Amino acid sequence: MSIFIYIFVMASVTYLIRMIPFTMFRTTIHSRFLRSVLFYIPYTVIAAMTIPAIFFSTGDVYTSLIGAFVAFMLAYFDCPLIVVALMAAFSAFLAGVFF
Question: Where are the domains of the chain?
Fold first, then answer.
C-alpha cells in the first residue's frame, strides 16, 4: 500500500512543478531581470547536474581534471560535440592508465 502513496506523492510533485509556472505567469513577463533569470535556469540546472558527474565519474579527481581540461579546450576551439566527448573520455582513460 505504501508504494501507491509514494507514486501519488511523486506524481503530485511532478504535476505541481509543471503546473505552477503556467498558472502564475499567464501574461507576458515584462521585467527584464526576471526574463533573463528564467532564460538561464535550464543552463544552470544542466551545469549543476553535469559538473559533479564529470569530476567524480572516474573515481580519481586528477584523471577527471585531465578529461575536463581536454573537453574545455576542444570546446573552446569549436570542435564538434562528439569529438569533444570522445577525446575527453579517451584522455581520462589514458591518464588513468599512465597515472
Answer: 2-98
